[in-house]
Amino acid sequence: MVVLAETVRGHELRDAAVNLLLGQFAPPRPLDEPTARAAGGLLAAANTNSTIDALVAAEALHRLPSTVLTSNPDDLRRLLDGHRGVTVEQI
């Protein structure tokens, strides 16, 4: 759900490409306590407070191998430093 909130804006034409892309993957699973705790651990290890990015990173680690597309790759790369199986790509 975080990814959806970060990418769509309620504009049918603008959101069309995002909806098409998301439709090609498994439905998102609900945010659960283990993922939230993993995100907290990533925040502590990276010494940052980007909670949303940490939740995305924790979910990506749960779905290995995975690729995260972002307009700000630096924060995600910092959170994922030392973890294998996740590729972060700038869009």
Structural topology:
Layout: H1 2-7, H2 12-22, H3 33-46, H4 51-62, E1 66-70, H5 73-80, E2 86-90
Parallel strand pairs: 1-2
Helix pairs in contact: 3-4, 4-5
Overall radius of gyration: 13 Å
Question: What is the straight-line distance between the termini?
Answer: 19 Å
Anisotropy-based shape: globular
How much of the residues is beta strand, in percent?
Answer: 5-15%
Spatial strand order of the main sheet: 1-2
Our count of domains comes out at: 1
Please report the number of helical segments.
Answer: 5
Mean model confidence by pLDDT:
89
N-to-C SSE series?
HHHHEHE
User: How is the main sheet built?
Assistant: 2 strands, parallel
In terms of per-residue confidence, which ranges show pLDDT below 50 for 5 or more consecutive residues? none
Q: Count the E strands.
A: 2
What percent of the residues sit in helical stretches (DSSP H or I)? 55-70%
